[in-house]
């Protein structure tokens, strides 16, 4: 009976993913078996919807990367609800893409279908982020994703990821999670700084992805993201055999995008002096109108006006977004003034 030999690639596959068992036939073909059933697990191409070359899905992803990346990189802090919408849309899109990639069987679906599904889900998340109910969630997501995109780029700076050993694969995700957590804490602690860095980080990430897709197609960051996220048992052979070996240009693009993130965050800080969420002008105008009422002059002399009450109260920090409760408080104060006037 001939002894079965295992190549280094096969040995890496054996350590990569449990419960898959990897063996090689006498002709060198890698076969995946399930230790639970003993049946062969058919292998397919690890599709991620990016297409090939400059196919239609590839062009759509390039356009999407620049459409999201450029505004957030240059003016994400001023985007307000557009930025929170983009943050929630990206959360929905990335989550759904990861679920599709990791749950499809060896047959899979076409790249254009997967791309269309993910982009539609992004649009739904974006619309939710435009609503008042999605604002606070979007603020936190904007900060968290800023940290995650920094962590992902750090991990992608090395062939086979920052920690290439399959047994320590989780360390890569641990680093990414720590970056996301640190960014979330920064948003809660110093909202303005957290949102500035978050917007710039997401923007430079997607601009770098768009440039890399145009230069290296699916062999650069696209391949790295697939290698990092795809743990589908139907894609074990394809994912590990092809690995992640980025060209030098990809590493340069990633490194530059990380280095430029603080610069774009500082530029937005200097350019946009106001808060992330502007105060409703209708509330301010209503306060001025109450001061112009002649009948209310005596009442306003004996009781503090809404404007003076607000001026003596603790002001909203410049880098904080006014909450709906704050707006209602302004309107309630205005109503009390009119009651006293009458």
Model description:
The protein is an all-alpha fold and 342 residues long. It has 14 helices and two strands; from the N terminus they run αββααααααααααααα. The protein has helices at residues 8-16, 56-75, 81-103, 111-130, 135-155, 169-189, 191-216, 221-229, 236-242, 248-271, 281-291, 297-302, 306-312, 324-341; strands at 21-24, 30-33. The chain is globular.
List the helices and strands and how they pair.
Blueprint: H1 8-16, E1 21-24, E2 30-33, H2 56-75, H3 81-103, H4 111-130, H5 135-155, H6 169-189, H7 191-216, H8 221-229, H9 236-242, H10 248-271, H11 281-291, H12 297-302, H13 306-312, H14 324-341
Antiparallel strand pairs: 1-2
Number of helical runs? 14
Count of β-strands:
2
Biggest beta sheet attributes = 2 strands, antiparallel
For the CA atoms, what is the radius of gyration?
Answer: 26 Å
Q: Ranges with pLDDT <50 over ≥5 residues? A: 1-8, 10-19, 280-288, 290-318, 324-328, 337-342
Shape: globular
Mean pLDDT level: 79
In percent, how helical is the residue content? 55-70%
Distance between termini?
A: 104 Å
Query: What portion of residues belong to β-strands?
Result: under 5%
N-to-C SSE string, H for helix and E for strand: HEEHHHHHHHHHHHHH
Strand line-up of the largest beta sheet: 1-2
Label the structural class: mainly alpha
């Amino acid at each position: 009976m001939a002894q079965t030999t295992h190549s280094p690639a096969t040995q890496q596959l054996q350590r990569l993913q449990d419960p898959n068992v990897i063996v090689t036939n006498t002709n060198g073909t890698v076969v995946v078996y399930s230790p639970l059933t003993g049946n062969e697990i058919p292998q397919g191409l690890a599709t991620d919807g990016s297409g090939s070359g400059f196919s239609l899905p590839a062009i759509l992803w390039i356009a999407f990367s620049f459409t999201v990346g450029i505004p957030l990189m240059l003016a994400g802090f001023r985007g307000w609800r557009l930025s929170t919408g983009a943050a929630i849309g990206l959360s929905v899109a990335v989550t759904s893409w990861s679920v599709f990639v990791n749950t499809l069987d060896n047959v899979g679906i076409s790249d254009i279908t997967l791309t269309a599904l993910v982009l539609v889900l992004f649009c739904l998340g974006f619309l939710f982020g435009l609503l008042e109910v999605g604002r606070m969630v979007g603020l936190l997501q904007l900060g968290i994703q800023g940290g995650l995109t920094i962590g992902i780029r750090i991990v992608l700076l090395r062939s086979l990821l920052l920690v290439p050993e399959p047994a320590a694969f989780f360390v890569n995700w641990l680093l990414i999670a720590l970056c996301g957590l640190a960014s979330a804490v920064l948003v809660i602690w110093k909202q303005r700084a957290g949102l500035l860095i978050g917007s710039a980080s997401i923007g430079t990430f997607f601009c770098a992805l768009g440039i890399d897709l145009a230069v290296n197609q699916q062999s650069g960051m696209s391949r790295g993201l697939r290698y990092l996220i795809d743990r589908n048992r139907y894609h074990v052979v394809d994912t590990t055999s092809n690995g992640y070996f980025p060209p030098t240009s990809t590493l340069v693009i990633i490194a530059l995008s990380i280095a430029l993130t603080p610069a774009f965050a500082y530029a937005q800080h200097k350019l946009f002096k106001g808060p992330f969420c502007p105060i409703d002008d209708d509330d301010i105008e209503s306060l001025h109108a109450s001061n112009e009422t002649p009948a209310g002059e005596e009442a306003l002399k004996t009781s503090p006006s809404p404007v003076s009450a607000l001026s003596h109260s603790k002001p909203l920090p410049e880098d904080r977004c006014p909450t709906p409760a704050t707006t209602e408080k302004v309107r309630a104060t205005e109503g009390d003034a009119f009651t006293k006037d009458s």
